[in-house]
UniProtKB/TrEMBL annotation:
<keyword id="KW-0732">Signal</keyword>
<feature type="signal peptide">
    <location>
        <begin position="1"/>
        <end position="26"/>
    </location>
</feature>
<keyword id="KW-0408">Iron</keyword>
<feature type="binding site" description="axial binding residue">
    <location>
        <position position="151"/>
    </location>
    <ligand>
        <name>heme c 2</name>
    </ligand>
</feature>
<feature type="binding site" description="covalent">
    <location>
        <position position="48"/>
    </location>
    <ligand>
        <name>heme c 1</name>
    </ligand>
</feature>
<dbReference type="GO" id="GO:0009055">
    <property type="term" value="F:electron transfer activity"/>
</dbReference>
<protein>
    <submittedName>
        <fullName>C-type cytochrome</fullName>
    </submittedName>
</protein>
<keyword id="KW-0349">Heme</keyword>
<feature type="binding site" description="axial binding residue">
    <location>
        <position position="49"/>
    </location>
    <ligand>
        <name>heme c 1</name>
    </ligand>
</feature>
<dbReference type="InterPro" id="IPR009056">
    <property type="entry name" value="Cyt_c-like_dom"/>
</dbReference>
<dbReference type="GO" id="GO:0042597">
    <property type="term" value="C:periplasmic space"/>
</dbReference>
<feature type="binding site" description="axial binding residue">
    <location>
        <position position="89"/>
    </location>
    <ligand>
        <name>heme c 1</name>
    </ligand>
</feature>
<feature type="binding site" description="covalent">
    <location>
        <position position="150"/>
    </location>
    <ligand>
        <name>heme c 2</name>
    </ligand>
</feature>
<feature type="domain" description="Cytochrome c">
    <location>
        <begin position="24"/>
        <end position="233"/>
    </location>
</feature>
<dbReference type="GO" id="GO:0005506">
    <property type="term" value="F:iron ion binding"/>
</dbReference>
<dbReference type="Pfam" id="PF00034">
    <property type="entry name" value="Cytochrom_C"/>
</dbReference>
<dbReference type="InterPro" id="IPR036909">
    <property type="entry name" value="Cyt_c-like_dom_sf"/>
</dbReference>
């Protein structure tokens, strides 16, 4: 019997995590976060992701604190290889060597995970078509699964492959959903020239799952589901490890 793609991904990430632990010994992740890497092009991570690693919503910079080390290292490798395009992150990723990448990933993973707000009382039935509906129920008539199917209850993340959505800003989630989508070609208008199709700038999802989902979401749906997860916010209560039991 052949292993499923998900199983292959799990084995790959598990092996990557062991490799990260070995490589990380050769570099100081916290120092790189605060001061940058040996190559001057590797700017301090905290400049964009904040001193606490919780990101900067206004600039669209994501939370990295508490994300799985294997996931962070994979994203840096994907930036370096061009599977994920970003004019700011690509040169930084390319300037980090393997040991520095591993150290940064391990340092961020060691920071507290997102603590989702606990809703009082029984949850209300979401309004059909709303961000909560898409997040919790999906749109199966268009083959769009609910976000929590992969990203876990309340979007707290599952394993090393599916990162938390709760705790990320609406701006960042929107930007990533658009990055997964290709822009279709447009014929010349009455006053303008034709525009060629633009491929997605993010192509590092397992089996093209996110590309399919993002392509089938409308702009209004992207905004709604991003607002839903951003609205979960981060609780000031002490961290509850039971929220992350699937990790």
């Amino acid at each position: 019997m052949f292993a499923s793609p998900a199983r292959h991904l799990h084995l790959y990430l598990s092996a990557s995590l062991l490799m990260l632990a070995v490589q990380a010994r050769a570099a100081d992740g916290e120092a790189i976060i605060q001061k940058g890497g040996a190559n001057p092009a590797a700017m301090p991570c905290m400049s964009c992701h904040g001193a606490d690693g919780k990101g900067m919503a206004a600039g669209g910079f994501p939370r990295l604190a508490g994300l799985p080390a294997a996931y962070i290292a994979k994203q840096l490798a994907d930036f370096k290889a061009g599977r994920r395009e970003n004019p700011l992150m690509q040169p930084i990723a390319q300037a980090l060597d393997d040991a520095e990448t591993a150290a940064v990933a391990m340092a961020y993973a060691a920071l507290p995970k997102v603590q989702v707000k606990v809703m009082a009382g029984a949850p209300e039935r979401p309004k059909e078509g709303s961000g909560a509906w898409l997040a919790l129920r999906g749109a199966w008539d268009r083959n769009i699964p609910e976000c929590t199917l992969c990203h876990g209850p309340a979007g707290v993340g599952v394993g090393d492959a599916f990162p938390p959505l709760a705790g990320q800003s609406a701006e960042y989630i929107e930007a990533q959903l658009r990055a997964w989508r290709a822009s279709p070609a447009r014929p010349a208008g009455r006053k303008g020239k034709a525009l060629a199709a633009v491929p997605p700038t993010r192509r590092n999802d397992p089996n093209g799952l996110m590309q399919h989902i993002a392509a089938d979401l409308s702009e209004a749906e992207i905004k709604a589901v991003a607002a839903y997860f951003a609205g979960l916010g981060e609780s000031t209560e002490p961290f509850d490890a039971s929220q992350h039991r699937l990790r």
